[in-house]
């Protein structure tokens, strides 16, 4: 009996031994057994031994819920170990806050293959044992998503914890903050950082500033600190800043203003003004970067200015990343080159700790600053020309005729673009806007009747077509002439009674009748074709928008003999910008060719190239150039006001009459186009409005002379 009992006991021990050893393995720190056929990763028993579940089921369910942004479903799959310290509300809020800030979309989360599923402290099968004897297993996953700051993609590790409840074994997610993004810890969050792009600067050919970024003071008021001095402070600020007290009150009454908030009033660059005003109660200053235009009025129409984007501009530019409050080019090159100058702001999603210290970048891109633009403009020349014409209504263009580089381009009267950056007052804006001389009008972009300055083009067409013999002395008696009785009461008038007259004399004395007859001798077809060789009828090939030249309205041809005759001396419906006239004259120093226009380094690809080849022949260019030197050197010449002893100034005057009918009083615009024939580094084309009663074109020539004299010093 005893022996039989002993045998039975030994058998029972042998049968129980695997279970006893298995149950003790966690205690000894050895590998946990895989879940049995009766264990599932979701807590439900499995009835099919062939599908014995493991930890992958819980991982798959969790990643699937994550992809769907089912945060509650994700939380349900967390281990009790995690849930003890994290409520569902906290868990859901954390994901929602971060994902909403990033504007997450197209989230894809996938489990990585088994070879990636490693865990520190795990066995080769990927299972580890905690100090409490609970088994955990490692898994790895790959996540990709699109965000407002750019795409995010990363590999990461996680682990599941073996959990037994009511006899059912589950493998649940042992979550921690690093599951959101690698490197996140408890208390960390994601912050969106934006770095504004630095606007590209505009400089002249020598690197001198035309539009630059400088540090300035943004003056403002903290309403609660004004105390009893409010009226005095506002009055003092208004006087110093050139504002009205009403302008300050309007800013202080904005809907967002609160007593303790800083309310921006104006930007100042004068340190003395800043120091004086910040000493007042309630006035403070903040450093800001602002746009500065060193030439002010002298280059306002060319360079333009920037201002805060308005609603209409925002609609157009929003897709490009612009937002309310951004600065944008309003006029001039600031507007024309906006895309290149603006740059792209940087933005990044960064992980920061509970104190706000940046730890790492999750996604984003660095700011891409705007392009620096180097113009062919010469600021010294631009300023010198402006000083000569600032009291006039004028358009002036200056070029280097041999290369096609634009050296100066300006309009007068002008305005100070810095006022718009600093905050122009209503009174100042009203004065400019109501000024009858129209300082906001960009005259160099407009086409005007070129008057007698066009006679050079008529002469060139006539000579090259064979319709004009330069040495023929034409019989032209009297001061008026008409073709025949078909003209009725219409006639062409000249100033000097010179008879007979050849080409040289016609240019010296600017004979309208001579060039009217020349245009008729050329004929409409050849006249139009000849003008086209100078680019008339098309815009200049520059990024800056300038009016296209024309022989007749709508880009057509002169409609009859009267209009053709008037076109011969730059009247009728002929219209050109001062810059186009300058380029037409450049053919005189380039053997008849017109160089390709250049305004910036971006046009350097055209350096050495021709815009118009053989606008006139070499012989014609030499003949007309010599005659223009005589027109200035001769004391009787209408261009003698530009004469400089020791120089060979070649030039042509022009007076364009804007009258309702013959014999009536009306506006006259004066022209002078000139260059030094022996040293053609500079060619100036100047037009001044309303020269009637001031000597006509003779008012203009001395101004060009003084500019040449200054530049040669």
Automatic annotation (TrEMBL):
GO terms for cellular component: plasma membrane. Residues 395-709 form the Penicillin-binding protein transpeptidase domain. Belongs to the transpeptidase family. It is found in: Membrane. Residues 31-56 are annotated as: Disordered. It comes from Cohnella abietis. Its main location: membrane. Pfam families: MecA_N, PBP_dimer, Transpeptidase. Residues 195-358 form the Penicillin-binding protein dimerisation domain. Residues 59-188 form the NTF2-like N-terminal transpeptidase domain. The keyword Membrane applies. GO terms for biological process: cell wall organization; response to antibiotic. GO terms for molecular function: penicillin binding; peptidoglycan L,D-transpeptidase activity. SUPFAM superfamilies: beta-lactamase/transpeptidase-like (SSF56601), NTF2-like (SSF54427), Penicillin binding protein dimerisation domain (SSF56519). Keywords: Membrane. This is Penicillin-binding protein 3. It comes from the Bacteria. The keyword rRNA processing does not apply.
């Amino acid at each position: 009996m005893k022996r039989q009992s002993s045998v039975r006991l030994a058998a029972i021990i042998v049968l129980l031994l695997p279970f006893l050893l298995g149950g003790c393995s966690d205690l000894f720190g050895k590998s946990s057994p895989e879940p049995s056929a009766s264990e599932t990763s979701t807590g439900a028993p499995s009835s099919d031994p062939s599908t014995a579940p493991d930890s992958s089921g819980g991982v798959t369910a969790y990643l699937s819920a994550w992809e769907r942004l089912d945060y509650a479903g994700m939380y349900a799959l967390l281990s009790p170990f995690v849930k003890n310290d994290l409520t569902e509300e906290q868990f859901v809020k954390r994901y929602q806050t971060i994902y909403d800030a990033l504007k997450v979309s197209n989230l894809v989360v996938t489990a990585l293959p088994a070879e990636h599923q490693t865990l520190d402290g795990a066995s080769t099968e990927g299972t580890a044992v905690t100090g409490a004897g609970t088994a955990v297993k490692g898994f790895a996953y790959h996540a990709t998503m699109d965000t407002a700051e750019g795409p995010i993609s990363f590999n990461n590790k996680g682990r599941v914890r073996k959990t037994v409840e009511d006899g059912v074994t589950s493998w649940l997610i042992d979550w921690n903050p690093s599951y959101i993004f690698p490197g996140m810890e408890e208390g960390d969050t994601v912050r969106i950082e934006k770095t504004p792009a630095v606007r590209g600067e505009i400089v002249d050919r020598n690197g001198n500033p035309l539009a630059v970024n400088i540090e300035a003071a943004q003056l403002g008021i903290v309403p609660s600190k004004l105390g009893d001095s409010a009226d005095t402070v506002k009055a003092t600020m208004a006087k110093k800043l050139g504002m009205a007290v009403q302008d300050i009150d309007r800013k202080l009454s904005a809907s967002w203003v609160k007593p303790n908030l800083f309310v921006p009033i104006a930007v100042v660059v004068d340190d003395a003004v800043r120091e004086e005003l910040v000493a007042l109660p309630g006035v403070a200053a903040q450093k800001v970067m602002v746009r500065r235009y060193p030439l002010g009025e002298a280059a306002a129409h060319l360079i333009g200015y920037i201002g805060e984007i308005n609603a209409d501009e925002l609609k157009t530019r929003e897709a490009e990343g612009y937002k309310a409050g951004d600065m944008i080019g309003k006029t001039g090159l600031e507007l024309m080159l906006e895309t290149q100058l603006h740059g792209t702001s940087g933005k990044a999603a960064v992980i920061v700790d509970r104190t706000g210290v940046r730890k790492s970048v999750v996604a984003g891109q660095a700011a891409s600053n705007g392009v620096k633009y180097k113009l062919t403009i010469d600021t010294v020349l631009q300023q010198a020309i402006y000083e000569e014409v600032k009291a006039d209504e004028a358009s002036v263009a200056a070029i280097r005729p041999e290369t096609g580089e634009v050296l100066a381009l300006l309009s007068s009267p002008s305005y100070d673009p810095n006022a718009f950056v600093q905050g122009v007052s209503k009174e100042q804006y009203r004065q400019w806007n109501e000024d009858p001389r129209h300082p906001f009008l960009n005259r160099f972009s407009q086409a005007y009747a070129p008057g007698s300055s066009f006679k050079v083009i008529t002469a060139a067409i006539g000579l090259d077509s064979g319709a004009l013999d330069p040495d023929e002395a034409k019989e032209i008696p009297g001061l008026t002439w008409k073709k025949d009785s078909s003209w009725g009461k219409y006639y062409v008038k000249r100033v000097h009674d010179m008879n007979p007259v050849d080409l040289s004399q016609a240019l010296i004395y600017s004979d309208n009748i001579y060039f009217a007859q020349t245009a008729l001798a050329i004929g409409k077809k050849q006249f139009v074709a000849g003008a086209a060789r100078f680019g008339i009828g098309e815009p200049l090939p520059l990024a800056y928008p300038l009016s296209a030249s024309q022989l007749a309205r709508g880009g057509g041809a002169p409609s009859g003999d009267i209009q053709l005759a008037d076109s011969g001396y730059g009247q009728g419906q002929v219209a050109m910008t001062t810059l186009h006239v300058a380029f037409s004259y450049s053919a005189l120093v380039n053997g008849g060719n017109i160089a390709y226009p250049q305004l910036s380094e971006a046009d350097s690809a055209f350096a050495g190239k021709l815009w118009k080849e053989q606008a006139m022949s070499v012989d014609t260019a030499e003949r007309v150039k010599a005659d223009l030197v005589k027109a200035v050197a001769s004391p009787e010449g209408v261009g003698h006001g530009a004469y400089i002893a020791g120089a060979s100034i070649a030039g042509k005057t022009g007076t364009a009459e804007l009258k309702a009918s013959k014999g009536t009083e009306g506006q006259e615009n004066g022209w002078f186009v000139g260059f030094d024939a022996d040293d053609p580094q500079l060619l100036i084309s100047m037009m001044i409005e309303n020269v009637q009663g001031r000597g006509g074109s003779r008012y203009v020539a001395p101004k060009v002379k003084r500019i040449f004299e200054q530049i040669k010093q």
